[in-house]
Amino acid sequence: MKDHKFNPESLMMTYGYKPELSEGSIKCPIFQTSTFVFKTAEEGKAFFELAYGLREKDPTEELGLIYSRINNPNLEILENRLSLWDQADGCAVFESGMSAISTVLMEFLNPGDLLVYGNPVYGGTDHFIQHFLDKIGVHTLAVFPDQNMDEIRSMIEATGKADKLAMIYLETPANPTNDIVDIQDFSELAASYSTDDKKVLLAVDNTYMGPLWQHPLQCGADLVVYSATKYIGGHSDLIAGAVLGGAEVMQRVRVLRTFLGNMVSPHTAWLLLRSLETLKIRMDQQTKNAQEVASFLNSHDKIEKVHYLGLLAKGTRQYDIFKKQCSAPGAMVSFDIKGGEKEAFKFLNSLRLMKLAVSLGGTESLAEHPKTMTHAGVEEEHRKKLKISDKLVRLSIGVENHEDIIWDLKQALDNV
Description:
Elements: H1 8-11, H2 41-51, H3 73-86, E1 90-94, H4 97-108, E2 114-118, H5 123-135, E3 139-143, H6 149-158, E4 165-171, H7 183-193, E5 201-205, H8 210-213, E6 223-227, H9 229-233, E7 241-245, H10 247-260, H11 266-276, H12 279-298, E8 303-307, H13 317-325, E9 332-337, H14 341-350, E10 355-356, E11 366-368, H15 380-386, E12 392-396, H16 402-414
Helix pairs in contact: 3-11, 4-5, 12-16, 14-16
């Protein structure tokens, strides 16, 4: 085994699990327990020192099992396997995508700090930034995909708080418009504001691309965040989030998770382990289907514009960024229907195969209206700037036969 470097999808069934420790069970059981027995008092002391970040871990030392709020076999095996996709030093899985996002922002931002964040972002993230961070005295600066690094640098300097810049937070591709930005450029920007005493971190929400189609850590990010509900879970039957990154930052994330108590449950971790086994074949089929769907929509006379990475024009900056940091165009397709809310709602209400629901990345195809649903809490003027309008519809493409998905889209558009 050591003579061959396996691809992540080949390790999702076995990595980190020893059947002989669980009565020979081919699959990891659900460890539905609250606490674990220590062999000695000295062992318990050592485990707690590591869990609470009281000392550095010895090179050959592992954090033993303590209490399921801190660690659990299902959680540890899941985090080990999930780390393989992004080649991360560490991973922490949470009870929701928003708990992962909010934990990262709370751990690395203090009152008086400056956060630069890309737009658009998921509506829940936008609300947390606009309302919670503002309430605790964190300064925020919104930047947009059409701005270059010189403009963004000038905006940072104009705040008068450039020396307080602590984090840059991106969502790329962005929800729901598929806008894409250069992760490496922002990594270099963060580095230019870092000092010997304080590193400016770059965190990237990679939910839209999952752990397969884009790897932000390899592009210079310090942290990658997922709503694991989406492609990682992939079956619309669980809620979870994940954070991955280097050993030092992940130690801080895990310690705060311990005290917030927002870790994922053993049962949900077990479901995610099951999902990881089919992650690649699901996502491969979803992006194939999405490319067919986007091509159909792009030629339809009732569609004003399709927002999809696979349709970016060659020679444009967005196309160059896409080819640089993504391995596929993904399975999220948004479009502007001709008309407005009335026409968008008529289309959504006419769908038969696709379901009208929020969320994304599941095996079934979904459709929703971002302005009145996922991004309803975003302020109106801000929404206009982001081009989240009455006519924007978002599709999450599943694993059904693409001809059936297109049939459904066509008949729904015929009713508009």
